[in-house]
Amino acid sequence: MIKAGLDIGNSKLSCIVADYKNSNKINFLSIYSIPTLSVKKNLILNYSKLLEEIKLLITETEKQSQTKINSINLNVSLIDSKSHYYNSEINLEHEKITDLHIKKILNNSDYFENEVGFFEIMNNIISYDLDGNIFYTNPIGNYSNNLKINFYKLLVKKKYLDNLNSILNNLKINVENYIPSPLSSSLATLTNDERELGSICLNLGHSTTSIAIYENKKLIYSDTLGIGSNNVTLDIARGVSTNISSAERLKTLYGSLLSSPSDEHEIIEIPSLSEDKTQFRQINRSFLNSIIKPRMEETLEIIWQRIRHNNLQNKKIKNIIITGGGSELEGIEEYAKIIFSSNVRKASPLDKFNIGKTYKKAIYSDVIGTILYEKDEFFHKYKDKLDKNRKKVSISGFFTWLDQYI
Fold first, then answer.
1. Which residues of the chain have pLDDT under 70?
2. Computed over its alpha carbons, how large is the radius of gyration of the chain?
3. In Å, how far are 207, 239, 298, 365 from 232, measured between CA atoms?
4. Is the CB of residue 268 less than 8 Å from the CB of residue 173?
5. pTM over 0.85
6. Digit-coded pLDDT (tens) for 301-329
7. Residue 255 burial (C-beta neighbours within 10 Å; 0-12, 13-18, 19+)
8. Which CATH number is 191-346 given?
9. pLDDT, tens digit, for every residue of 221-248?
10. What CATH number does the domain located at 82-155+378-403 have?
């Protein structure tokens, strides 16, 4: 089966095509990426230019892969998204749990509730509670007096998707699945053990930072923050009075979160902001890093506060996986260990995917993850069995009829 994925980022657009059999049998036919300045934190700054850029991207990807792209899996940023945790339960009086009990709980819950102005991008069961005992797999066949199901629903603003769909409709491309961008990054970089034991995947991108938290192979939280590695670049440009491209170069070549006595004596020449290209000034590496450290510390602290705000710190998850372009900053692992008091590793797409060296980089984790997405993992199996277009009354009526047989 041929699968295609598209990532519309704040600094680059990426498209991927693969012959996909399963997660262990993938033949990547093409990965193509181009820079863009047309998007900023979910806002399309230049619609016509972005349309032309995506058209070029799709055309080049089709040429490389020798395929025609008619539908894609689309990465979606979670800026201004909503995470909704809810539960529902029934008393069984020592009955054997069946499929009908699960359906009844779904009907009594917020599972089919929609919020005006938002699109449901994920809605799944994260755990089952049988008489106070937590299960992470389907409990059908067990006897119980009480069954409670805990759910996690993720919503994104509909107007954001409408903007993206408007462009893709112009190109006659259908969106097969909308994928939370943090989820895509985690699918490309986390091992099965990390997903089962519990891990936090952070993608430090250009203008955003995404969070995906797993426990017992379930995605239990996902979000995107409007702060990224470009904030560091802008801090450097302002702090040393140089242009943005030179600031990015300084960050990449000399930036570090680790201190060394030699930093005071390592001199770096930087171009000034004047039109005179021959004018340079000097700073030492210690001064440069004194600009970088506060911003990165703030970013990691904001992530930790967001986790605490959602009461997820009590999960005691001790594995942090960092990917994205910002993960290339020297010393990020050591710094994150201090902030999160956890084990930390930097990650690029896993070796098992056999991606060429050119694209086996952290900045491509999100687009590679679009190929690995399986909808059944993140929506309950009953979701597609019900007609999404039928009125609520019809759904309610069906389950009212069903209830009398349970």
1. 23, 380-406
2. 24
3. 10, 10, 11, 21
4. no
5. yes
6. 999 999 888 888 777 888 999 999 999 99
7. buried
8. 3.30.420.40
9. 999 999 999 999 999 999 999 999 999 9
10. 3.30.1490.110
Contact indicator for 146, 89 with CB cutoff of 8 Å: yes
- Residue 103 CB partners (closer than 8 Å, separation 6+): 382, 399, 402
| Dihedral (CA of 87, 92, 94, 97) sign | negative
Question: CA 158 to CA 95: how far, in whole Å?
Answer: 42
Helix 47-65 vs helix 158-170: angle between axes, to the nearest 10 degrees? 60
Give start-end residues of each CATH 3.30.1490.110 domain in the chain: 82-155+378-403
User: 36-74 burial string, b = 16+ CB within 10 Å, else e?
Assistant: bebbeebebeeeeebbebbeebbeebbeebebebeebbb
What are the two backbone dihedrals, phi and then psi, of residue 131, each rounded to the nearest 5 degrees? 50, 40
Please give the full DSSP string across 182-240, using - where no structure is assigned: HHHHHHHH--HHHHHH-EEEEEE-SS-EEEEEEETTEEEEEEEES--HHHHHHHHHHHH
CB hemisphere CA count around 174 (13 angstroms): 5
CA torsion, points 304, 306, 307, 310, in degrees to nearest 10?
Answer: 160
